């Protein structure tokens, strides 16, 4: 059985932050990101930590969703709504 390794990278100027993690060390990777953000000698900010942490959590959620038994069609039938997509049912009644 092989373990999948996730790679997450951030480039800030001359600095490169590359995180390699699997499911077993996801929490330790999140802790390390926090230590980098707390280090004033690095350009890695708390905003960077928040974005990277979100990406790490998403990779775990996607893997759980893929490995879950059963058929989940919720994403397939989801319709994104934006300010351009609004429905006013009053128009339907007035036209009738």
Strand order of the largest sheet: 1-2
Structural class: alpha+beta
Number of helices: 3
Which percent band covers the strand fraction? 5-15%
Helix and strand string, N-terminal first?
Answer: EEHHH
Question: Over the alpha carbons, how many angstroms does the gyration radius reach?
Answer: 21 Å
Described by the principal axes of the CA atoms, the overall outline is elongated
| Termini separation | 63 Å
Percent range of helical residues: 40-55%
Q: In terms of per-residue confidence, which ranges show pLDDT below 50 for 5 or more consecutive residues?
A: 85-93
Averaging pLDDT over every residue, what do you get?
77
Sketch the major β-sheet: 2 strands, antiparallel
Short structural description:
The chain has 96 residues and is of the alpha+beta class. It has 3 helices and 2 strands; from the N terminus they run ββααα.
Q: What does this protein structure show overall?
A:
The termini are far apart. The protein is elongated and about 35 Å long. Strand 1 and strand 2 form a beta hairpin. The chain is an alpha+beta fold. The longest helix is centred in the middle third of the chain and has 22 residues, at 46-67. Mean pLDDT is 77; it is low at 85-93. It has helices spanning 26-38, 46-67, 89-95; strands spanning 6-12, 15-21. It has a domain at 6-67. Strands 1-2 form a two-stranded antiparallel ribbon. Helix 1 packs antiparallel against helix 2 (46-67).
């Amino acid at each position: 059985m092989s373990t999948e390794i996730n790679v997450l990278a951030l480039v800030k100027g001359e600095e490169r932050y590359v995180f390699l993690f699997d499911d077993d060390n996801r929490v330790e990777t999140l802790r390390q990101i926090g230590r980098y953000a707390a280090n004033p000698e690095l350009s890695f900010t708390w905003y960077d930590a928040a974005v990277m942490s979100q990406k790490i959590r998403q990779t775990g959620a996607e893997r759980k969703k893929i490995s879950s038994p059963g058929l989940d069609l919720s994403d397939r039938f989801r319709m994104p709504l934006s300010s351009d997509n609004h429905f006013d049912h009053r128009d339907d009644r007035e036209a009738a």
